[in-house]
Amino acid sequence: MQREYKLLNFDWITIALFLLLVVFGWLNIMSASHTGEINDYFDMSQPYGKQSVFILFTLALIVLILALDAKFYERFASIIYAVSILSLLGLFIFGKNVNGATAWYGIGGMTLQPSEFAKFATSLAVAKYMSDLQTNMKTFKDQAKTVALIVLPAILILLQNDAGSTVVYAAFFFVFYREGLQQIYLVIVVFLIGLAIMALKFNVVVASLVAALIIFGHHFFGQRKRPQLIQPIAIVIVAVAVSFGVKYFYNSILQEHQKDRISLWLRLEKDPIKLHEMKQTILYNLNESEKAISSGGLTGKGFLEGTRTTGKFVPEQHTDYIFSTVGEEWGFLGSALVVILFVGLLLRILYLAELQKSTFSRVYGYCVASILFIHFLINIGMVMGLIPTIGIPLPFFSYGGSGLWAYTILLFIFIKLDSNRINEW
Amino acid sequence: MRKLLLLSLIVVVGVIFIARLFYLQVYNEDPYSLYDDNAIRKVYDYPKRGYIYDREGKLLVANQPSYDVMFIPREVKPLDTLEFCNLLKITKEDFINFYDKAYRYSPRLPSVFIPQLSRMEYAVLQEKIRKYEGFYIQKRSLRDYQTTIGANVLGDIGEVNNYIIENDPYYKSGDLIGKQGVELSYEEVLRGIKGIKFIQKDRFNRDIGPYKDGIYDTLPQPGKDITITIDSELQKYGELLMRHKHGGIIAIEPSSGEIIAMVSAPSYNPNLLVGRQRSRNFSKLYTDTIAKPLFDRSLKAQYPPGSPFKVLSALIGLQENVVTTEDQFSCRNGYYLGSRRLTGCHSHVSPLSMNQGIAQSCNAYFVNVYRRIIEKYDKPAEGMDVWSNHIKSFGLGDYLGYDLKIGNKGRIPDGDFYDKWYGKNRWSSTYNISNAIGQGEVETTPIQLANMVAAIANRGHYYTPHIIKKIEGGPIDKKYTTPNYTTIDKEHFEPVVQGMFDVYNSGTAYNLRVPGIDICGKTGTAENFMKIDGKRTQLTDHSIFVAFAPKDNPKIAIAVFVENGYWGSRFAGRIASLMIEKYIKGEVSMTSMEDWILTHSLENEYAKPYSGQEFGINRQSALQVIDKIEKDTVVNPITTRTSILNQ
């Protein structure tokens, strides 16, 4: 069954979800940033006015993306990636420092954040490399090469002191796993995360002991055929080394504010005076955002009626903490709706990705879903105090041109690829 | 399988987020209230507190502005401390002290820096306060007493305590509330309703503007003025007469139940509880456990009433038809059961009928009547109940229901009381004959006694005593204008009233007659005891007197109680007569009687139990003569107290 009109091939469900999020996000940005009467929706002195313009640009961008030939993205993936890396490198020379991170180019009165665009560039590169017939993801060599594609931009971004955006690159793990990364890596990742948390929460000795117990337990009781004892001993030594490494990393490498965030999340700080101080400083955002969300109750205080939002109680509320505005003004019903819209969008992308016939489209679709998922997880988790503070925006929702455009490009390239799947075999 | 990892993670995270939202917003959330929202500043606008007038329309309590220097520690910017301290007349150490104390309390909330500036201080500071960031002046309204009397009646206002704040959402920290007297009773009428403005704040605690353009803001409603039933002239006179004595006076207008005077002695100047010295003065008054100036003896002191109670025994005897006005009983200096004397009596003509029984206050007469009442019924408990119910119909033995918030029930025993005490039916009237003469288990408060006299003056009914005469723009509670009837028929009152009249004409109050006024009265003397070093020690008797006048169409019913004043006519009777004359004639003609009261003190008597030495009572006790009290001096127990202890 071949579709007559290409236009109808676009997945309108995804587009509808996207539009709902953008428009609802814009309303909340208006709430979070307005001061007094709102007369002009395009008032360029106010964030909501700028966002209106960004959204108009976005619509133009969408038309452009959908107009280009689907093959363009696959063919030019390497070039787009190279440009993106260059733009990241250029930051070291021309970059503009905002809030301690050198992550922006200043063009006229506007700023552009290349790390946002690097996300879709990297996704294209990863998809291109993985879909290459000569690539075999079961081999260590090819795995290493793919990882290198991801680590390069990640390190550049980390060097610009934008640790939050770096964390996003962990999303590619899901893509690798889907594309045939050995099961053992999943076990190792889960094991290492558990080990790190234990080493910090309790201490290195406890973590090492627990690790040893699990490994030897597995060795003696889990397997029928026992390999030599040397192997589990080696693993335990590595585990102990990792535990110490984590502790060292936490104590010596992490910056003070990052350390405090983790220590608060794991409830490490017991000194009540220090804790009280932390509440005034680094916990302040979180406290205010939780209070704003709770005060919304079931149905919220209504659009533009949130007292904590109007009073600008939550810092950065129109950007990273936008979800607290939803919580206060739209209540449980509104915020649950946003969560459902995101889950719906993510599942839809996954579903479409699995339908793709070409590996390139499928891998790219998976990249999109993974990246958006990490943002969703970290941003909303952070605003509600479930995970430590990591400053990344909520896609389509938070204020900001670079972000909005980058996520739009990320998503609409996939919509374009998807619309073309009928023509592929 | 591999497809499921991300998919299931997405779903799990979605569910966790919605659960967390549910926890934060629905499960864990108190219903949203503008009042609890700390993003909204609530600014209260306090209305004028109602004025208080006496029954003649004389202003007793008004308001005066007062200015507090307030500050918010966090907002204080570096300033010229020296200049600021000079302005406020404090030292730099004080400044640092106040600041640190407030900062420890809360850096963000306003604290009082210097309370209650005088008008002069305010005038100087008003110009300059703007220079000092973080400081501001808050205007408050304090009471301005136009009189030095009636502290126990008028009461006072003070800051609300935490208990009230937690239980009554109207009151916020720092609000003023009536603490005693009519300020407490009519708090809601007097205070009015404060207005409120909601102001949107930002996170730096700065005001942005009115919340929603002020649609929820309200204007203050001024408090209502009230007129109380007190005659301030009579009240003042009563307080003067009670100087250097402890006790209480209650005067009631029988035809309405209005309390004309309500004196508790020792009293204090109500102005002591206003302004900067309030808490210091209050604790001085509060810690004076000997004179207890804060203890309202007119409402709360519970004593055995003594002989005034006898008139009730006579009335019940007539009502129960166990005695006629003509029946005579003999008295051999007391009442004898067989050869045992149950109660003594002073010497008088014997035998006596009812009229002279009352006039001469013969104990034996009333014991006989009492026994006849109780023994009319088969079981003593039954008779006791009948007696008790008659007594209670005069408002005794329970809270009277007047509109002041303090009081005592008194005690009127009934059949049950003795059944529990002795065992069911294991007692008889002879076990408790002292009830007949107002001793034993019977106890009353001065206001109950005054009300009892009012009921007799009205020949069988009374109006619940009350202090409120008029509330601006509204009637007073109907229960104060509805008569309560006693269980005694009207016709039985005349002979008893005649007996009380003869107390003045030929009886125990013969020396207290007031020319031109027909007074009916009854003397009383009550034994009393106190524990000194764990030993029950008898003190000089209490002097008690009740009266009403004139005999027909009575205008005043009065009960006077003077602690350790010995016999009834000695202190209480004189004071009652003087009060009656003052009220009915407007002035006092009996200057020698007045002089006697003003030159005699009982302070020596009150100091005895605390002297640590042996002391004599009643007949062995010498009266203390003092210089005549000047009429226009102001009573101040804070200084009087020390002078007594220094003697």
From TrEMBL, chain A:
Gene Ontology CC, one term: plasma membrane
Biological process, per Gene Ontology: cell division; regulation of cell shape
Q: What is its main location?
A: membrane
Report the superkingdom from the record: Bacteria
Q: Name one Pfam family in it.
A: FTSW_RODA_SPOVE
Answer whether the UniProt record assigns the keyword Secreted to this protein.
Answer: no
- Which molecular function GO terms apply here? lipid-linked peptidoglycan transporter activity
Q: How does it sit in the membrane?
A: Multi-pass membrane protein
Name the InterPro entries on file.
Answer: FtsW/RodA
Q: Which residues cross the membrane?
A: 12-32, 53-70, 76-94, 147-172, 184-217, 229-250, 330-351, 363-390, 396-415
Q: Where in the cell is it found?
A: Membrane
Membrane as a keyword of this entry, yes or no, is yes
The record's annotation in PANTHER family points to: CELL CYCLE PROTEIN, PEPTIDOGLYCAN GLYCOSYLTRANSFERASE MRDB
Q: What is this protein called?
A: Rod shape-determining protein RodA
Tell me which species this is from: Gelidibacter salicanalis
UniProtKB/TrEMBL annotation, chain B:
GO cellular component assignments: plasma membrane
Keyword list (alphabetical) reads: Carboxypeptidase, Cell inner membrane, Cell membrane, Cell shape, Cell wall biogenesis/degradation, Hydrolase, Membrane, Peptidoglycan synthesis, Protease, Transmembrane, Transmembrane helix
Q: Give the enzyme's EC designation.
A: 3.4.16.4
Q: What class of enzyme is it?
A: hydrolase
> One Pfam family name from the record?
Transpeptidase
Q: What is its membrane topology?
A: Single-pass membrane protein
GO biological process: any one? proteolysis
Specify the superkingdom. Answer: Bacteria
Q: Which NCBIfam families match?
A: pbp2_mrdA
The UniProt entry, under PANTHER family, shows:
PEPTIDOGLYCAN D,D-TRANSPEPTIDASE, PEPTIDOGLYCAN D,D-TRANSPEPTIDASE MRDA
The name of this protein is Penicillin-binding protein 2
